[in-house]
C-alpha cells in the first residue's frame, strides 16, 4: 500500500517539475493598451496562446490597473504645485483685460462713427445726384421753352402775325422763288399763284414742330399756357392761307387739281381735315 503512495508521490513530483519547466509568460505590453481602437474582448482573445492561468491573468491586469491609478495620482500630485503657480501668475491680469475691453469699446465707437459718417455722406451724395437730375431736367425744359418761343417768333414773323412782315434777305427771296417755281412746275401750267406751296409747307411744319415741343415739355406748363393765344393766332393764320391757296387752286380748274390735292394733304398734316372739308363745301356753295 505504501508502495502505491510512493509511486503516486513520484508521479506528482514529476508533474510539478514539468510545470516548472514551462516558460513564464512575458509581462503584458503597455503599448497594447494605448491603441485608439483598443477592445478588451478582442485583446483577451489574442491571449489564448499565453501559458498563464485565468486567475494569474486577472491578477496581472488588476496589478496593472492599480499601477496606472498610482501613476495618475503621482502625476496630479507632481503638477499640483504648477497648477497653483499658474493660478497665482494669472492674478493681476484684470487690469490688462480691462484695458483690452476699454480699447475694444473705443474701437467700436470709432467704427460706429465711421459708419454714421459714411451713411451721412451717402445721403448727401444721393441728394446731390437728385438735385443734379432736377437741375438738368429744368435746364432741358428751359431750353425747350426757348426753342418754342424762338420757333413761334419765327413763324409769326413769316406769317406777319401781330406785326408788319419782315423784309426778306436776297437769299430768302431766291429760295422762295425757287420753291415757288418748283411747285408751279408740278402743275404743268403757268398759273401765277399768290403763295407757293413750299412756303405753306414750311409754315405747317413749323407749326407741327412747335406742337411737338409743347407736348414734350408738357402742355400744362405756365409758360406754354400763356402762349396758347399766340399758337391759336398762328393756327388760324395758316388755315386762312391754306384756304386762300385752296380757293385759288379750285378756281384754276384742271390746272390746279394737283395743287388742290397737295393743299388738302397739308390740312391732313395739321390734323385739320375737317377745316379742309369745310373750305371745299363753302366753295361749292359760292
UniProtKB/TrEMBL annotation:
**What Pfam families would the database entry show?**
COG2_N
Keyword presence, Disulfide bond = no
Which part of the chain is the Conserved oligomeric Golgi complex subunit 2 N-terminal domain?
A: 28-101
List every stretch annotated Disordered: 157-189
Q: Which UniProt keywords apply?
A: Coiled coil, Golgi apparatus, Membrane, Protein transport, Transport
A single cellular component GO annotation: Golgi transport complex
Residue ranges annotated as compositionally biased, kind Acidic residues, are 171-189
A GO BP entry is:
protein transport
Subcellular localization, per the record?
Golgi apparatus membrane
Q: Which segments cross the bilayer?
A: none
Question: Which superkingdom, per the lineage?
Answer: Eukaryota
**How would you describe this protein's topology in the membrane?**
Peripheral membrane protein
The protein's name is Conserved oligomeric Golgi complex subunit 2
| InterPro entries reported for this sequence | COG2, COG_su2_N
Q: Does the keyword Lipid metabolism apply?
A: no
What's this protein's family per the entry? Belongs to the COG2 family.
Q: Report the coiled-coil segments.
A: 44-71
Amino acid at each position: 500500500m505504501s508502495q502505491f503512495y510512493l509511486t503516486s508521490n513520484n508521479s506528482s513530483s514529476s508533474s510539478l517539475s514539468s510545470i516548472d519547466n514551462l516558460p513564464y509568460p512575458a509581462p503584458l505590453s503597455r503599448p497594447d493598451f494605448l491603441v485608439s481602437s483598443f477592445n478588451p474582448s478582442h485583446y483577451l482573445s489574442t491571449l489564448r496562446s499565453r501559458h498563464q492561468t485565468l486567475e494569474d491573468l486577472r491578477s496581472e491586469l488588476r496589478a496593472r490597473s492599480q499601477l496606472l491609478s498610482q501613476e495618475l495620482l503621482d502625476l496630479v500630485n507632481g503638477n499640483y504645485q504648477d497648477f497653483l503657480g499658474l493660478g497665482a501668475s494669472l492674478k493681476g491680469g484684470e487690469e490688462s483685460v480691462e484695458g483690452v475691453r476699454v480699447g475694444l469699446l473705443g474701437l467700436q465707437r470709432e467704427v460706429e462713427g465711421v459708419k454714421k459718417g459714411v451713411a451721412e455722406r451717402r445721403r448727401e451724395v444721393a441728394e446731390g445726384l437728385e438735385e443734379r437730375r432736377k437741375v438738368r431736367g429744368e435746364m432741358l425744359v428751359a431750353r425747350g421753352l426757348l426753342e418754342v418761343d424762338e420757333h413761334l417768333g419765327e413763324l409769326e414773323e413769316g406769317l406777319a402775325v401781330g406785326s408788319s412782315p419782315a423784309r426778306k434777305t436776297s437769299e430768302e427771296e431766291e429760295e422762295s422763288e425757287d420753291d415757288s417755281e418748283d411747285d408751279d412746275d408740278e402743275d404743268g401750267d403757268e398759273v401765277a399763284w399768290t403763295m407757293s406751296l413750299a412756303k405753306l409747307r414750311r409754315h405747317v411744319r413749323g407749326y407741327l414742330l412747335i406742337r411737338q415741343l409743347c407736348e414734350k415739355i408738357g402742355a400744362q406748363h405756365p409758360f406754354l399756357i400763356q402762349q396758347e393765344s399766340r399758337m391759336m393766332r398762328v393756327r388760324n393764320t395758316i388755315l386762312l392761307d391754306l384756304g386762300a391757296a385752296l380757293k385759288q387752286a379750285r378756281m384754276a380748274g384742271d390746272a390746279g387739281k394737283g395743287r388742290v390735292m397737295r393743299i388738302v394733304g397739308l390740312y391732313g398734316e395739321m390734323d385739320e381735315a375737317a377745316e379742309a372739308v369745310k373750305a371745299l363745301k363753302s366753295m361749292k356753295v359760292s
